[in-house]
Specification:
The protein is of the alpha+beta class. It folds into four domains: 235 residues, no CATH class; 139 residues, no CATH class; 38 residues, no CATH class; 93 residues. The protein has five helices and 29 strands. The strands form five sheets. Strands 16, 17, 20, 23, 24, 25, 26, 27, 28 and 29 form a ten-stranded mixed beta sheet that branches. Strand 18 and strand 19 form a beta hairpin. The longest helix has 57 residues. Pfam families: DUF4139, DUF4140. This is DUF4139 domain-containing protein.
Length: 544
């Protein structure tokens, strides 16, 4: 029998639990699947246990402490579900002997302690060898001939023997000392690994102290195994796309390598979970904003001031606030639905481990290959070099979500940018760094007092400019050259311009006064554009 229960609010313990239960079953859960949203995640955990016939109180003692009770969902097989409540007090201690993470942490600490002892024994053995050799040298130095040995030959023999033995002992001490740095390095590394293992165990122990328990009422019609599925929401999780955008000019191609960055600080590790990434945002606004009627009035301020002085509160309100205040109507509070209509969902094909509190985990998704149009964009008014621009149509059939993008041109990293959403079928463009061999200049040959390239009077300003693009590379480039002239929306201000050659496009992308020239520039070639404009206005008026 399968049931689905959702409580929007916690009930009081008396109302929730009903009559006294025959017994309490404490059953641990384990996480099997997680759906991560841009902000937050839905966690699916399973609980398996055996139940006798009758009513029981099942306590699941291992949910994160900050679990929102109103977003818990339950499913059950083999029993009838009753009410449930979330508890944070009077919980039994967690059984660390059944926690795989804690068991692994304790095993890592034990292994590290063994390695430290072994490394310390190696260092101690070397130090003992050095100490023994030095003791032998010290003993030999104190030897003195006695009795029949006090002869020239006896002294010589003793001195020779002492010299040989001291030399041998010294060599042994030096040989042992050469082994000491390596042994000390082994000990240092072993101690560091032990510290890391102990820190991991301490983190698990601290995390285990911060948890909540889910108390569920069940009724079993027959004795046997019970399978519960618990779904709940955690706020401290997120994911975001990340891209490697790889551009090549030969057989023009734009390869978009898609990946994701996943992070979570829920207080528990997600080990071997089935991971789904969704663009739904259940924590955000789920319905459109409400507009209220905006009533405007005109008032006689003199009459209103008299009424306000006489104590008329409505008149005071209208006089000092600019009108009668409208009643504030709060929008209705409703539960945010989990809508999947136009939500993009990615399911990762392999089990994933996402540790709590760790830096972003990067996971690879797939690659998309597009055919771009590559041009060199030149803005000599602002830049000294041209830049590579790739325009493309997203014909992948999938939306490209916003995220961090790393830009590679011919295999070399040239920069990074924040990539914006590109819908399926939409056109977009990306910049891929400067082209140092395409040099730009903007000369202004006219000279007048106070300004270079500008002739001015009280009613006229004339500017002449020469735009230049020089190709110092060994290959031809399609170039798109940009500049601008002023524009006016007043009849009194007349603006005219001349360009040689004429621009290929005016008012580029709807921006008035922005001009563009499109041409191919061969290797070693230089291209110039003459651009003049004149502003005229009536006598007595001033240009701004």
């Amino acid at each position: 029998m399968r049931h689905f229960t959702l409580f929007a609010t916690l009930l009081s313990s008396a109302a929730v639990m009903g009559p006294a239960f025959a017994d309490q079953i404490v059953a641990a859960s384990h996480i099997t699947a997680v759906t991560v949203y841009p902000y937050g995640a839905q966690v699916t955990r399973v609980v398996d246990f055996d139940a006798a016939v009758g009513a029981h109180d099942v306590l699941i003692p291992d949910l994160p402490a900050q679990t929102p009770a109103e977003l818990i969902r339950l499913q059950a097989e083999g029993v009838t579900l009753g009410a449930f409540s979330l508890r944070t007090d009077r919980l039994p201690p967690r059984d660390e002997t059944k926690d795989p993470a804690m068991l692994a942490a304790k095993a890592a600490v034990a292994a590290a302690e063994t390695d430290v002892r072994s490394a310390q024994a190696g260092v101690d053995a070397i130090n003992a060898a050095v100490e023994a050799a030095e003791a032998q040298v010290d003993f030999l130095r104190r030897l003195r001939p006695e009795g029949d040995a006090v002869t020239v030959e006896g002294v010589k023999a003793l001195a020779g023997m002492v010299g040989v033995e001291v030399l041998t002992a010294r060599k042994e001490a030096l040989a042992a000392q050469t082994q000491l740095p390596a042994a000390q390095k082994v000990l240092e590394d072993a101690r560091k690994l032990l510290g890391d293992a102990q820190a991991g165990q301490d983190a698990l122990s601290q995390r285990a102290a911060d948890y909540a328990g889910l108390s569920v009422a069940i009724t079993a019609d027959a004795a046997g195994p019970v399978h519960l599925v618990v779904q709940h929401y955690v706020e401290s999780a997120s994911w975001q796309p990340v891209y490697d955008m790889m551009l090549t000019r030969k057989d023009p191609s734009l390869t978009i390598v898609r990946g994701v960055l996943v992070s979570q600080t829920s207080g528990e590790d997600w080990a071997g979970v089935d991971l789904t990434l969704s663009t739904a945002q259940p924590s955000e606004q789920a319905e459109p904003s409400v507009l209220w009627p905006d009533l405007k009035r005109v008032i006689d301020p003199v009459e209103m001031a008299k009424r306000a002085a006489a104590g008329d509160e409505n008149a005071q309100e209208m006089l000092y606030s600019g009108g009668m205040s409208e009643p504030v109507m709060e929008p209705e509070v409703v539960a945010a639905p989990m809508i999947k209509g136009d939500v993009v969902v990615y399911h990762y094909p392999a089990a994933v481990d996402v540790a709590t509190g760790v830096e972003n985990l990067r996971l690879a998704l797939d690659e998309i290959k597009l055919v771009p149009q590559i041009e060199a964009w030149a803005v000599p008014r602002r830049d000294d070099t041209a830049f590579v621009m790739a325009k493309f149509v997203n014909d992948s059939g999938e939306i490209l979500l916003p995220g961090q993008a790393y830009l590679l041109r011919e295999g070399e990293l040239v920069g990074a940018t924040q990539f914006s959403t590109v819908a399926a079928g939409a056109e977009a463009k990306l910049a891929f760094g400067a082209i140092e061999g395409l040099r730009l200049k903007r000369d202004m040959p006219l000279r007048a007092e106070g300004d270079r390239g500008i002739l001015s009077s009280s009613t006229q300003v004339e500017e002449k400019a020469v735009l230049q693009v020089e190709n110092l590379t060994a290959e031809a480039w399609p170039v798109r050259l940009f500049d601008q002239v002023p524009y006016s929306e007043q009849e009194d201000l007349e603006i005219s311009y001349t360009a040689d050659p004429a621009p290929s496009e005016v008012d580029v992308d709807g921006q008035r006064g922005i001009l563009a020239w499109t041409f191919d520039l061969a290797a070693g070639e230089k291209k110039s554009v003459q651009l003049d404009h004149v502003l005229r206005w009536p006598e007595g008026k001033q240009l701004q």
